[in-house]
Each structure stands twice: as structure tokens, then as C-alpha cells.
Amino acid sequence: MNSSEEHNERIVRLLKKDAERRAYIREYMKEYRQKKKEETGISQKQYASKDDIKIRMRKIYYAKTVLSDVKNLFQE
Q1: What letter does residue 49 receive in the DSSP assignment?
Q2: Would the pTM of this model clear 0.85, i.e. be above it?
Q3: Which of 15, 52, 73, 76 could covalently link to 48 via disulfide, CB atoms 3.0 to 4.6 Å apart?
Q4: How many structural domains compose the chain?
Q5: What is the pLDDT of residues 4-61, one digit of tens each?
Q6: Phi-psi region at 41: left, alpha or beta (left = phi > 0; alpha = psi -120 to 50)
Q7: Quick one: pLDDT at residue 13?
Q8: How would you label 9-47 residue by residue, b for 16+ Cβ within 10 Å and e otherwise?
Q9: Are residues 35 and 65 located together in one domain of the fold?
Q10: Are residues 33 and 43 in contact, defined by beta-carbon separation less than 8 angstroms?
């Protein structure tokens, strides 16, 4: 076997190892999230309260409305 074939085999072996590790991590995290959801009843941690989200959405809505109004004001 020459060096290029050995190099190619090594690359294939490393790629397979990496793919197996990623698959293992993916499955582990899927099980972890499922277990946490069963324990807490919450699928993902919510960092902001619903009221905070509503306030931010209103601000965004008003900002978009103002920008749209200014844009339409200067159109001829």
C-alpha cells in the first residue's frame, strides 16, 4: 500500500469516527431533552416572560409602522 492509499484510509476512518460521535451526541441530547421535558413539563427554557415578549413585539410593530409612514411620506 502506498502512502496516498494509507492517507485516504486514515481520512475515511476519521470521518466515520466523527460521524459516529456526532450521531451519539445527537441521540444523547434527544434523550436528555425528552427526559427534562417529562420532569419539568417545559420543552425549552424560556428566559423572557410572556409579558416581556409582548412588550418587545409592540415596540417592533410601532417601529415598523413609523418607518413605513416616514417612507410613504417622502414618496411622491
Answers
A1: -
A2: no
A3: 52
A4: 2
A5: 899 999 999 999 999 999 999 999 999 998 998 888 877 777 778 888 889 999 999 9
A6: left
A7: 95
A8: eeeeeeeeeeeeeeeeeeeeeeeeeeeeeeeeeeeeeee
A9: no
A10: yes
Fill in the amino acid letter for 37: K
Instruction: Indicate whether 55 and 33 sit together in one domain.
Output: no
66 is in which domain, residue-wise? 46-76
Q: Could you tell me if 26 and 58 lie in one domain?
A: no
Which residues make Cβ contacts (< 8 Å) with residue 56, sequence separation at least 6?
48
Same domain, 52 and 28: no
Confidence at residue 76, expressed as pLDDT on a 0 to 100 scale = 62
Assess whether 26 and 51 both reside in one domain: no
Per residue, the 3-state secondary structure of the chain, as one string, reads: CCHHHHHHHHHHHHHHHHHHHHHHHHHHHHHHHHHHHHHHCCCCCCCCCHHHHHHHHHHHHHHHHHHHHHHHHCCC
Q: Is residue 27 domain-shared with residue 14, that is, in the same domain?
A: yes
